[in-house]
Design a protein that fits this description.
seven-stranded mixed beta barrel, 5 helices, alpha+beta, Ku70, Chain: A, Domain 2
């Protein structure tokens, strides 16, 4: 397993279990370096003062907040004064049903793994797994990762505790400010759309979906390694909006029936 990103304790009442966090996802994207097209040299990112036009070392960099026509400058000491206490504890405060949490609030997932060789903490970890798994509840708590305090949800997944950092309510935009479309559909349109949804409904299988863009990109990289010429595929025209909604729904159902 990869190196842990955080280590500390999971606190549940008076029970403290030594744990470590490992990212539950991995980066499979293809990453590129930026080069100077003329000579192929790597590009570097540097900080320059817009007033003096000289490079500035990191220790001379400060931070400022725009306040109208002025800038409020904050020093590292002032920022440290409001930084959260760097505790090494994931403190569980409450439990909720998983179905009550909108996925919109979930951010980054981690595996919570017990640490140490002592049997006591391992038994406490297993107790949490069994109890939380039997109640189908999600534990809510807080902890500090790097310099930021996070709200977290902890649940049981495949016999292991899984933690997900969460967005706070203030981070989520109100859907009332989003245009919800035009008039309500007719009953016939609604019934046909529901029928189409039912026909397309399958059991969730994550392995059935792949990152097609990354797959194509890796193929292009291999072709370039072999010195092959890459030709851009013909771009498909954007589908026209459906003027006759019922006709589009009926045709979709007919084509789906023919495929199956």
């Amino acid at each position: 397993m990869a190196r842990s990103l955080w280590s500390g304790a999971l606190s549940f009442g008076l029970v403290n279990v030594p744990v470590a966090l490992f990212s539950a996802v991995r980066d499979t994207d293809v990453h590129f370096h930026e080069l100077h097209e003329k000579d192929g040299a790597r590009l570097e990112t540097r900080r320059f003062c817009s007033e003096e036009d000289v490079e500035i070392p990191y220790e001379e960099v400060c931070r400022a907040f725009d306040a109208g026509d002025e800038q409020v400058v904050l020093t590292d000491l002032e920022l440290d004064a409001i930084a959260p206490d760097r505790t090494r504890t994931i403190e569980i405060r409450s439990f909720v049903d998983l179905a009550e949490i909108d996925p919109l609030y979930f951010d980054h997932p981690y595996w919570v793994v017990p640490t140490g060789e002592s049997q006591g903490p391992l038994r406490a970890y297993r107790l949490l797994v069994e109890v939380m798994g039997s109640t189908d509840r999600v534990a809510l708590g807080r902890f500090v990762l790097r310099t930021k305090e996070h709200l977290v949800a902890v649940r049981v997944l495949d016999g292991v505790l899984q933690l997900t950092t969460m967005r706070f309510a203030a981070d989520v935009r109100d859907p009332k400010n989003v245009d919800g479309g035009g008039r309500k559909p007719t009953r016939t349109q609604l019934d046909s759309a529901v029928e189409l949804i039912e026909a397309l409904t399958v059991d969730w299988d994550p392995s059935a979906y792949e990152d097609r863009y990354t797959k194509r990109l890796k193929k292009v990289v291999k072709q370039k390694e072999k010195g092959e010429t890459i030709k851009a595929p013909k771009q498909e025209d954007q589908p026209a909006p459906s003027e006759d909604l019922m006709a589009a729904l009926r045709k979709s159902l007919e084509e789906l029936g023919a495929e199956r």
